[in-house]
Amino acid sequence: MMFTMFHLTRTLAIALAFAAPASAQQPAARIKIDTDRVIGEVDPLLFGNFTEHLGRCIYGGIFDEGSPLSDAAGFRKDVMAATRDLGVTMLRWPGGNFASGYDWTDGIGPRDQRPPRRDDAWGALESNRFGTDEFLTYCERIGVTPYLCINAGLGTVDMARKWVEYCNEPGDTALARMRRKNGRQQPWNVKYWGLGNEIDGPWQLGHKNAEDYATFALEAAKAMRRADESIKLIASGSSNFRPGYDWIGWNRTVLEKLKGEIDYISLHTYIGNPDNKFEKFLAISRDLDDRIEVVQGQIKAAQLTAPNPRPISIAFDEWNVWYRARGGSEFEIGRTGLEENYNFEDALAMSMFLNSFVRHANVVRMANLAQLVNVIAPIFTNKQGMYLQTIYFPLAEYAKQKNRQALDVQVESPQYKPDGGRALGYLDVSATWDPRARTVFLNVLNRSEKMDLATRIANVEGRISPQAGVWQLYHDDLKATHTFGDDRKVRPTEKTVTLAANGNALSYTFPKHSLTILKLKLAD
Ligand code: AHR
């Protein structure tokens, strides 16, 4: 783990150096790149997203029947274009909490004959006009990988098995005939299936203890694999980090029982800044790293006792900033639940998550921002159009780093203790490497609210070209937000600069509260 050894030896000196009031620039940070220290490939599925039947995500978000902004299928064309530009690779559906009360058979067949149902997860009315075939058509249309989450709350093993058969059966069964009658001749071949959503949370319909969940999920997994043995399964891991809840025990039980069947275990984390302390907010990376590393260790422990261990990765399949906008309880379609209006500091928080995923690229192989449109989302619509929220821009830029090699860079930066707990560095860093283009993308979040940090960037072997690409997200006002007709305030700048060189090292000053992605070309 990159901040450890180097930091330990330097902590005292750095603490003393920064005890004095900060001047505008202090040349105290150092980053060392070593292209031999490859962590793993940045899986394209790290740039997944999530669409739930909740508020205006589906209805009025991606699907708006009769709108002049939609195509003949009812898909909003402006949202599809913005989703493509965001670099989204995967979409998870239908929930979320919604999944735990959902009967997929309600959402197939002629639309006008589908039954309206109570959505008791969110206290809404579900028309079922958007269902499995609409979702899978949508994914095909925008070129992303679908990921379906079964109902492991109030649902049954047989419902899950039949859903796989309906989607993926190539032969002539009653369910395959039904799919064909509904317009889809060839199997959809849905590869990724979630074994339920947040079953560890008491807020979940059909919440269970770990043993009961694992028993259900094991039988569901075996039955679903009978319908299609090629599918990949994601177990419901920890989402409940409330004090006193044994989240580590949950994962231990789930992994022990399911290690022979699953390909991923999920983690969910939402964060916020309710007490308005910027540096504390951006220190949550410690929790993200901890959660990932604990589960990574648990996977290893489970595999050690398996005769033919199956590779298991982490799917961080819900993550975002979410703490201001909560759901209402009105019983109507399209109510406005969870419509967070994101600001500049939230955009910086995106990079904290993504840096953590990249630093753990050898185990985090899927991640899904929650969610895509309107509901805690980077894209926001109304009947007349849409705008891009502040968080859109770092997400889109990081997505360009898919398939690159994640590098274990060495980082030394002034430290702080936001809540009297463990110290952490002001610079939160990840890096990716494209060996063919010999380019390193250095992703640097300066989470100091007030200090610019002059930094020496060295390459262990060889020279870095001083001509560097600089992508930067900065705004004076941490609380700057976007709205309709005014979404250009928090936008990245891009330029090529010539950095001051000193031997094989370069100097760059990362501005206070900023995200910078340096594109550095290494000499042959
Ligand atoms: O994304 C919003 C909700 O957050 C999801 O439905 C649930 O899984 C999580 O608690």
What's the quick description here?
By secondary structure, the chain is α/β, with parallel strands linked by helices. It is built from 11 helices and 26 strands.
Report on the architecture of this protein:
This protein is an alpha/beta fold. It folds into two domains: 20-40 and 406-521, Golgi alpha-mannosidase II (Immunoglobulin-like, Sandwich); 43-278 and 313-402, TIM Barrel, CATH 3.20.20.80. Helices cover 25% and strands 26% of the residues. It is built from eleven helices and 26 strands. It has an eight-stranded parallel barrel with strand order 3-4-7-8-9-10-11-12, surrounded by five helices. A hairpin with a 2-residue loop joins strand 24 and strand 25. The chain is globular and about 70 Å long. The model is unreliable at 1-26 and 329-333 (pLDDT under 50). It binds alpha-L-arabinofuranose. Alpha-L-arabinofuranose is lined by residues 52, 95-97, 197-198, 318, 370-371.
CATH architecture descriptor name of the largest domain:
Alpha-Beta Barrel
Q: Ligands bound here?
A: alpha-L-arabinofuranose
- In spatial order, strands of the major sheet run 3-4-7-8-9-10-11-12
Distance between the termini: 28 Å
For this structure, what is the CATH homologous superfamily of the largest domain?
A: Glycosidases
Number of strands: 26
Shape: globular
